[in-house]
Amino acid sequence: MSNLNDVLKALSADIDEVENLVRDLDDADWAKPTPAPGWSIADQVAHLTFIFRLAKTAAADPDTFKGIAAQAAGNFDGAVNAALKQFNGFPPKELLARFRAEGDASVEALAAVPENSVVPWLVNPLPPAVLASAGIMELFGHGQDIADALGVRREPTERLRHLVFFAFLTRDFGYLSRGLTPPAEPFRIEVTAPNGEIWAYGPEDAANKVTGPAQDFCLLVTRRRHRDDLALVATGEEADRWLDIAQAYRGPAGEGRTPGQFADQCCD
User: Fold this and answer.
1) Co-location of 134 and 183 in the same domain
2) Over the range 14-39, which residues count as b (16 or more CB within 10 Å of their CB) and which as e?
């Protein structure tokens, strides 16, 4: 696993990338619908702002966070929707300023956590590097929705490594969200980085393996592209099944995306 400093540098760069996507938009563009049903660009930024406030609180004030998590435990979707109302009521420029401030504050709070300790989170406590990787996952997924709404193509970077590893750690989420029993045997994830390097996790002799471009893998696990539109190859029956249900986040899977939905701007 990467050290905390490396993950936080990547997290900061991803915050910059999402900020750059929306910084020069006019108010009408902030109201544009994104591929996530019912979510505008402003909603996407509001959600990320909420996530960063949660992460900052978890790292800097664990007792307060535990109270928030307890309140949301019975109805996390309701808590998310309430947070959207809290943040997307701000005018775009103020919302963007809050997104930036909460993002920077979460990076600072996570950096102050001793690397060998854990931070309370929604289901289980997490090492700060893993929680920072979850932030990268959120920025990648919601940033993709914003890019898709704007017709912008994002260039993949080596920062995707942290999301690939996070998805390897959270392989079982797709099973759990559907009430399925995850397989006992680990998978092998072997993806090609944008610079041509191979990133591999899991036993070399695993019966179930997923290979392909790292960006495609990240689009799959954030459910921002349908597997039919991605150059991913599953070896083994269980790995093939997983490509249909993969998700790197807890809770409901959401509607995902349909085959060919982004044919005019599909990934390589």
Assistant:
1) no
2) bbebbbebbeebeeeebeeebbbeeb
User: What are the residues facing 152 on neighbouring strands?
Assistant: none
Residue 260 to residue 244: CA distance in whole angstroms: 15
Closest CA to 99 of 51, 55, 149: 51
- In contact, 34 and 149? CB cutoff 8 Å: yes
Comparing CA positions, the residue from 238, 237, 198, 236 lying closest to residue 217 is 198
Domain count for the chain, please give it: 2
Q: 157: closest CA among 199, 195, 105? A: 195
Under 8 Å between Cβ of 234 and 243: yes
The residue ranges of the chain whose pLDDT is under 70 are 1, 73-80, 83, 264-268
Q: Looking at the structure, do residues 18 and 124 belong to the same domain, yes or no?
A: yes
Supply the range of the domain harboring residue 134. 4-150
Residue 76 has a pLDDT of 63
Tens of pLDDT, residue by residue over 104-147, are 999 999 999 987 899 999 888 999 999 999 999 999 999 999 99
Looking at residue 74, its pLDDT comes to: 64
Give the pLDDT score at 77: 67
How far is 164 from 157, CA to CA, in rounded Å?
A: 12
**CA contacts within 13 A on the Cβ side of 15:** 26
Task: Report d(CA 15, CA 135) in Å as an integer.
Answer: 9
Calpha distance 6→1 (Å, rounded):
10
- Give the Cβ contact number of residue 115 at 10 Å: 11
Q: Is the domain of 81 the same as that of 204?
A: no
Three-state DSSP class for residue 93:
helix
